[in-house]
Amino acid sequence: MLCVRIIPCLDVRDGRVVKGVKFQGLRDAGDPAERAAAYEAQGADELVMLDVSATPEGRATAVETVRHIRAELSIPLTVGGGVRSEANAGALLEAGADKVAMNTAAVEQPELLTRVATRFGAQCAVVAIDAARRLEGEGWEVVTRSGKHRTGIDAIGWAREAVARGAGEILLTSWDRDGTRSGYDLDLLTAASRAVPVPLIASGGANDPKHLIEAVHAGADAVLAASIFHDGDYTVRAVKQVMAAAGLEMRMEAGQ
Known about the structure:
The chain is of the alpha/beta class. The protein contains 10 helices and 12 strands. It has one domain (5-245): TIM Barrel (Alpha-Beta Barrel). It has an 8-stranded parallel barrel with strand order 1-4-5-6-7-10-11-12, surrounded by 6 helices.
């Protein structure tokens, strides 16, 4: 059994870490490089940085922020936000990212996933899917542009297509749960994990280690969280200890 990965998320706006609810009401949560270094010291397996203002403002992710983080970080780093071309992806990888996450642009031009995966490898191509429960009927639809646009596209169907086009990993966020601390959308995770063969990162709604454990049992290979770490409710190490005690395979440092 592979170890479950714990992935703190840095939502970055104008060079600062921010946190909100459903991508709104953003508040300052510190310096990205300082946060990154602290989470690595706590035992984080990977880190995700998402430039939450990149797509709405129509600009590329701040490459300098990526360099700033990489200077303090040795664990894998996934970067997303405003990735609209192979050139954007290449610039981020050159700046220090190990993987690039594509969301809005991948929905609007699905061939982007294939181009990035072909040029840089599927292991570098992450599709970030923001999924919201349909207002009418069952299932979930893809939302883009930081949750402002409901596409009508079936989220599970899009996950299958994204993998077929070359995505090597899925970062699946429940828009309904993001920042609410009400737990991950377990039905969404189960449906997605059954639909695709690639690793699945659960995102949106974590409040305590129990929620992370539930996400893994629902089918997630990795769990992403922000608020519980930013607000100091838990350290990564403390979360891992609880999850290990629950019988999950975790990467623990020597002596812990």
